[in-house]
Input
Amino acid sequence: MADFNLPVLNLAELDRGPEAAAQFRESLRAATHDVGFFYLTGHGVPADLEGRLLAAARAFFALPEASKLAIENTKSPQFRGYTRVGGERTQGEIDWREQIDVGPERPVITDPAAADFWRLEGPNLWPEDLPELQSVLAEWHELLSGIALRLLGAWAESLGAPADAFAPAFAPDPSTLIKVVRYPGKDEPTPQQGVGAHKDAGVLTLLWVEPGKGGLQVEKDGEWIDAPPIPGAFVVNIGELLEYASDGYLKATVHRVVSPRAGDDRVSIPFFYNTALDKTIPLLDLPPALKAEARGVTRDPNNPISGVLGENALKSRLRAHPDVAAIHHADLIEKYAAGASA
Output
């Protein structure tokens, strides 16, 4: 295990004058060039909201199994709703967690000529016994979307582009996803896969972790770094689309979650903020000094990166949830196993 701490950045520095804002952008650029992960403080999310969100999450996971399975994701062509423990896979291996997935509430796309990835648009599945979950997640979504937009503007400027350089790719509606996740403990002599090693496929992730509950690990120089929660801070990482937009100057980093020990569990809530499904993220024209340090986009023949979010997202969902794919998208399984795009 490497002895390294993730950088800590304070978003409030953007409001403390030009010099402080410039220093924040420099620190943001450096953190996501060198590591791809950092802690974010000064974001303005009230502690009361964090408490209400955790209470709602705990209440959901405490529901009777029948109530959770009533909204199981096998009922959703959009991969929304509840995933039972062992129902999701990373790199083909089973993840030991349960969760509910929540995306934007939008109409189903019925045009047969539409690109395959439009199948991801549609309604959420909500537990009838817990209406407060929907309301608290709506608050969470609004606040974290604002934080994500501020970070995107700061990233663009840090790379020599206008603050609104990424804006066209998010119009008219960004694609977001909230996962409310519980990792149950496992009685094993060695650490077990809560979530397997992977990179995020989108733009950026804001991760809230239950205080005092570790398990997240980030890869750096071939070793795993523990990233325990810091009170009042999000863990932030970039996805493959920001790596793509910066020709590899910014780094989408491999990370994983190790299961808690038996008798314990862990709640975490990642918020994924991404471009519209059909938009291509712009390729930035980096200043010469930064361009010289751009590493190029990671090339994996088993997981080619597209600049269009929908192509990455659909491929990822089909692989992560083969049961949902078999029920609702059997016509796509062979196509995407062969690496085709939408």
The mean pLDDT is 93.
